[in-house]
Amino acid sequence: xALFRRLFLCLLLLTLGMGGVFAADITAKMDSxxxxxKSLKGKERMRAWNVxxxxxxxxxxxHSSMQTLDEWIADAHEHHDEWSESVARQNKLVDYYNLAxxxxxRSTAQEAMDFCRDKEGLTRKFFEAWHLLICSYHAQGQYNxxxxxxxxxxxxxxxxNDIFGQSMAYYNMGNVYYTxxxxxxxxxxxxxxxxxxxxxxxxxxxxLEVYPYxxxxxxxxxxxxxxxxxxxxxxxxxxHFGKNKQNQLDMPPIYANYYIGRTQALLGLGxxxxxxxxxxxxxxxxxxxxxxxxxxxxxxxxxxxxRDGNYDEALRLNAERIRLSHVIVDKPTMIPIHxxxxxxxxxxxxxxxxxxxxxQVYHIDDSMNTMQTREQLxxxxxxxxxxxxxxxxxxxxDLYSKIIGAMVIFAxxxxxxxxxxxxxxxxxxxxxxxRSNAELQLANEKAQESSRMKNAFIRNISHEIRTPLNILNGxxxxxxxxxxxxxxxxxxxxxxxxxxxxxxxxxxxxxxLEMSEISSTVIExxxxxxxxxxxxxxxxxxxxxxxxxxxxxxxxxxxxxxxEVDDALTVTTNSxxxxxxxxxxxxxxxKFTRQGYVHLYATADGQMVTFxxxxxxxxxxxxxxxxxxxxxxxxxxxxxxxxxxxxxxxxIARKLGGDIVLxxxxxxxxxxxxxxxx
Length: 678
Prior knowledge:
Layout: H1 2-15, H2 26-37, H3 42-59, H4 62-78, H5 82-98, H6 102-116, H7 123-139, H8 143-160, H9 163-179, H10 183-197, H11 204-221, H12 224-244, H13 251-268, H14 272-284, H15 292-308, H16 311-327, H17 334-347, H18 351-412, H19 417-481, H20 488-519, E1 527-530, H21 531-542, E2 557-563, E3 570-573, H22 575-591, E4 596-604, E5 608-615, H23 645-655, E6 659-662, E7 670-677
Parallel strand pairs: 2-4
Antiparallel strand pairs: 1-3, 4-5, 5-7, 6-7
Helix pairs in contact: 1-5, 2-3, 3-4, 4-5, 5-6, 5-7, 6-7, 7-8, 7-9, 8-9, 9-10, 9-11, 10-11, 11-12, 11-13, 12-13, 13-14, 13-15, 14-15, 15-16, 15-17, 16-17, 17-18, 18-19, 19-20, 20-23, 21-22, 22-23
């Protein structure tokens, strides 16, 4: 929740002190301020700009707000008031961020950083602008870029010996790691941020904003002992800040977040009574049912109701929490709140519903990991394109420098032409070395990225195996715990699901082994086999003719073979692998055909034998035609399957001297054509 709560806090910080203004008279107030401003100078004039901007922001008109900020920046620049100009630039940056205009955030942040860089008294503004730049990358899922910027920010802050900058660098990296669900790294980074901020009394307000995220990370890591110790420190800072805070209107959210942190620690330690009291204290300080503190209140009240055995109330609170998560898009909490619902159902003895919810949780987890992997791959692809453009640009600039240098030297130093030629040759060699070094560096970065992609691949496969494995564990536990309380129907249903997931996991492992075998094997094509035999064996291996189990209704999918190949026709190939490739096509067709038919056609000419598998299934979208033969590509993340069958079949066919293609002219479903040389 760290990312989205920050959005809320940015907006809150921007709007503090702006209450009491009614929309009906905002325009009149703005006109009044503009008239008074004509006679104001110095700090009074800059304060008037701040008031005018607050009115413009309160009006809700983006154009008016941005125009006022541009005028303020121009006026502050003209009067050489660097502090006021930095404040106006920061307000503009926050406005763009809250409007989710992230491209504008990046350009505006860079302008603000360039303006504030190395100016006395503006170092903090410099790092605040950098902070929002990182937030924009974080919000768009560009996690690698956000982490890289955070590290650069930390190095810059170390060089400037600026504690605030160092702490904000750790704070940003901690939040990005949390969203990526790298909880250990998140805890380490946020702890560094807290320790640095504790050294500066002037940063106590920022420290109180960092504590809630540190608490979330410790709870995700299940380090409740450390969370308990941390919240005790947190409480001392809240007490100290409250005594010295002039505007007590700011305190309720601070108290609410602190007591929520105490609730997290106490629940984790099993001290339910104390946790209940802490949550009541948090509720006293929450008046807005659309705030993020309210979401936490719903979650932990549901947990307390579950522990009390009040399952209906727990489910009601959880349902409201899930509903609000769709209103306020909050991906990192999707898994915990759905997992909480599964736990409530399990505690209530509603095991079948609990099992379904656990299954849904793992699907959400897999979907989020897949989406995150794709975003990172897209991001890395962008990196490579940018790096290539930078190399090209540097080469062009270098060429221009050579031309200008040659013209100047020829005009002014003609008598040194021989020395110039020698120097130019040396420079060319140096440039070649520089380009070679750049290419080596780029190759190294690509190798590192390849390693990261390999790790992502392993993680995805782990998820594919883990999902059925966890379902098996869950149902096994249900059978062990409730053996005497389950009906025959429930036991049969659970047995069927256990069998299905065992089969799914076994098929996945077999296909992985098969893919590994094919990629490293040279297939011998020396066996003379009857073409019709390949058809018969592949059909038998696929089990496609066994669509109806004994005692079950007839399948809505029919299967037929139209074999036009001469019975005497033989093919010089490898029958074992040829049958496997055709079997994968048949299994794929049956999997995605809900009703209608699957047909297998076999034909031959003088050189090739062709096997065509045609179905009336869901088909292949136009935009996915080039992707489906990629390894682990799935058109629907929620469909069963591993995304291995089609690429494996094509790989085999090509090693046999043939190919597998998708017939894009067929629109009734999908039609795959496999060819083998005779």
